[in-house]
């Protein structure tokens, strides 16, 4: 107990009491070692940040607009930024959405948290891909939500397996998918699967959350339209973010959804933080409206494509033959699997050789596969990508 | 139901389903009328924002540190800002707290939300002042928390009433107080009451949340130390914010508390938004470490003291004799009461005469008094303060 009282109950709420540090936290802890090469985090490369463009925006706008940039903004976000996002979604994604159906969030992480709280009561279950984004798991668990994972193949969530799962679990509160360059696998869901999932949720009356943080970062292959753009009902809830195409430090994401969802999210947003940073919103709005975004995305793609290529070439040069890996057409992550290996148990050996990954098991909402790991290719320098893969190759060879 | 399915349950979670727009939202809706004078919001005056200082910080630091300012930061906040806050709390408040016992939040609003979620399960009850901060009510309700209000007088929460309440409700999950220039009343809790509340929570083993958004804005009278500085156990949970001494648009607040509280808040923060704006944190840190904060606070105080004086002088000139009001020694709000009047019912008449306030009843966690209103004196221009009080005086006279 906290003070000298005699209460039996814990000081903390039952949900928070159950919360534990995630595998990501544990991975981050070893990073203070300067010799460590980390493929663990999910950080954009700082070289991808438009520092000069932002400084230009600030210098031109702050003297006259500074007072507005520093004041409280509307709970749902500034009108000018919601307008800019609405236009951007139409132009880049083929998504027709009114600015009134968009709400700004503090990163799409906050969007996930708010949607979990919005759609599910404690103890309710939802369906996700297996594996799925680790901090979606963290976020949904924070509302006491249970997750049922559905297996994936190289075309995304297996719709056949989804149908089977829905027989055993017929009333999920929502289905959560990351169709483009999925975190952690790098896999992109095929157009057929997107259409089929849309059919299933429409048929069964299930809410669908489409998380699209990496869609703008396609290095090769043909763009596949977001599920949201295929959904004429407008019910699909779409999550976007500025973290990968502008800056994660600004903490700006957004949710596009139907009227009633946005209306309730507004009430939640008031309760949670009254609104996201006004300064960040001004920067993002100018970044879009001045055309900087359109000019800058190709630069990020060029940088990341180079790093993905370099990592895959290094795999091919140094990894033993029995190590498999995905070949993502975009995004930030590659999924590496060595059958028969337990990557959880192997991690201390890797850390000992100064290379870090995130264990694959962290990404499974239920029991999961232990033979995989997630590697990030966007953050490390070129030298560290090659050297880190060499180290990891030696760990794969020596550990058994 | 959302789609064509046949589910009986609502689309939304039961907690969110119960959420309703607050009185503040309703007040904000009339502000698009340019002739409206609003004493309703809780906004700082834009003249109080250190626009030049921030532009200087950005110009000097962004070219070299921009990449860091735009990257993800630590979940609990940057070390340099937590160090700066730790020093500031010691120097300004006499609070001894390690930087490791501080976590950054997106405004103190998020701190309130996180603490509600941390300390109470759905259906649990807590104790607050009556009246209390409206968005604390919104925030706690978002976690399904019930509130029991304890009456105040000119020295703050009545400790005698608190003891009585604790006989009927012996196991509150926490007690929430705003000792300095309370929102909405402007009342400051006496040193004796602070000590007594501390004794009570120590004796009964109840968590104490001290919210101090306005403490730096004292216009006159002697500073009274925060409860946190009197608490040798270190258990008091203290909330601070940069919204009133720097900028609300940066969305930066912090919680200072004991180890186990901070450890759990870190897990919550990861689930909710992974961290607050790194850019905002860099600005706040430089603002403190360069001494701008110390130089700037007296300017804000001078501006607000003038506005408080002007509002009170206008009350004395124009209000009917039977209208009572508090005389706050700092902060942003005055509490105005006319016995026998229902300010909820009077509001449409005030809006008709182009002046807006927040109805007093909005600030009561349970049934409350309807004869009061909250007036903000920091946001309006001097002309509007005088004119708005004149209009309100005419409403008081004509409405009955």
Output the keywords.
homodimer; about 400 residues; alpha/beta; Aspartate Aminotransferase, domain 1; Aspartate Aminotransferase, domain 2; 2 domains; four-stranded antiparallel β-sheet; globular; disordered N terminus
Describe the model.
2 copies of one chain form a homodimer. Chain A contains 14 helices and 14 strands. Chain A is α/β, with parallel strands linked by helices and 400 residues long. In chain A, 44% of the residues lie in helices and 14% in strands. The relative contact order of chain A is 0.17. Chain A is globular, with a radius of gyration of 21 Å. In chain A, α3 (51-70) packs across α11 (278-289), α5 (107-119) crosses α6 and α12 (292-318) packs parallel to α14 (382-398). Chain A has 2 domains: 14-50 and 295-398, Aspartate Aminotransferase, domain 1; 72-293, Type I PLP-dependent aspartate aminotransferase-like (Major domain) (Aspartate Aminotransferase, domain 2). In chain A, a hairpin with a 2-residue loop joins β4 and β5 (156-157). The first copy, chain A, has helices at residues 14-18, 23-29, 51-70, 79-93, 107-119, 134-141, 159-168, 191-204, 227-230, 259-272, 278-289, 292-318, 343-352, 382-398, and strands at 37-38, 102-105, 125-130, 146-153, 156-157, 174-177, 207-211, 237-241, 253-256, 323-325, 333-338, 355-356, 358-359, 372-376. In chain A, the strands form 3 sheets. Chain A has an 8-stranded mixed beta sheet with strand order 2-9-8-7-6-3-4-5, with helices on both faces. In chain A, strands 10-11-14-13 form a 4-stranded antiparallel beta sheet. At the A-B interface, α1, α3, α5, α6 and α8 of A face α1, α3, α5, α6 and α8 of B.
């Amino acid at each position: 107990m906290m003070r000298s009282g005699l209460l039996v109950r814990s000081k903390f709420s039952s949900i928070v009491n159950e919360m534990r540090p995630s595998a990501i936290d544990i991975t981050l802890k070893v990073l203070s070692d300067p010799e460590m090469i980390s493929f663990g985090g999910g950080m954009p490369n700082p070289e991808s940040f438009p520092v000069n463009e932002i400084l230009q925006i600030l210098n031109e706008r702050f003297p006259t607009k500074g007072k507005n940039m520093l004041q409280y903004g509307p709970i749902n976000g500034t009108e000018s930024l919601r307008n800019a996002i609405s236009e951007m979604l139409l132009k880049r994604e083929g998504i027709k959405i009114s600015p009134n159906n968009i709400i700004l969030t503090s990163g799409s992480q906050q969007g996930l948290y708010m949607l979990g709280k919005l759609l599910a009561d404690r103890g309710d279950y939802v369906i996700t891909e297996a594996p799925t984004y680790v901090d979606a798991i963290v976020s949904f668990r924070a509302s006491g939500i249970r997750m049922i994972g559905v297996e994936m193949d190289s075309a995304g969530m297996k719709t056949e397996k989804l149908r089977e799962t829905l027989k055993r679990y017929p009333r999920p509160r929502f289905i959560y998918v990351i169709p483009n360059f999925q975190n952690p696998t790098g896999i992109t869901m095929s157009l057929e699967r997107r259409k089929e999932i849309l059919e299933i949720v429409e048929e069964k009356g299930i809410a669908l959350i489409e998380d699209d943080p990496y869609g703008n970062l396609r290095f090769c292959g043909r763009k596949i339209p977001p599920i949201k753009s295929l959904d004429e009902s407008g019910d699909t809830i779409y999550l976007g973010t500025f973290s990968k195409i502008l800056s994660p430090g600004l903490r700006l994401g957004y949710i596009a959804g139907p009227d009633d969802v946005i209306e309730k999210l507004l009430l939640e947003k008031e309760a949670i933080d009254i609104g996201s940073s006004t300064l960040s919103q001004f920067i993002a709005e100018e970044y879009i409206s001045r055309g900087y975004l359109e000019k800058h995305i190709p630069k990020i793609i060029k940088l990341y494509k180079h790093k993905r290529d370099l990592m895959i070439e290094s795999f091919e040069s140094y990894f033993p033959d029995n190590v498999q890996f995905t070949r993502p057409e975009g995004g930030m992550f590659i999924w590496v699997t060595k059958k028969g290996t337990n990557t959880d148990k192997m991690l201390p050996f890797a850390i000992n050789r100064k290379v870090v990954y995130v264990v694959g098991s962290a990404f499974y909402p239920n029991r999961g596969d232990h033979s995989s790991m997630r590697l990030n290719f966007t953050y490390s320098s070129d030298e560290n990508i090659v050297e880190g893969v060499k180290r990891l190759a030696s760990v794969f060879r020596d550990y058994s």
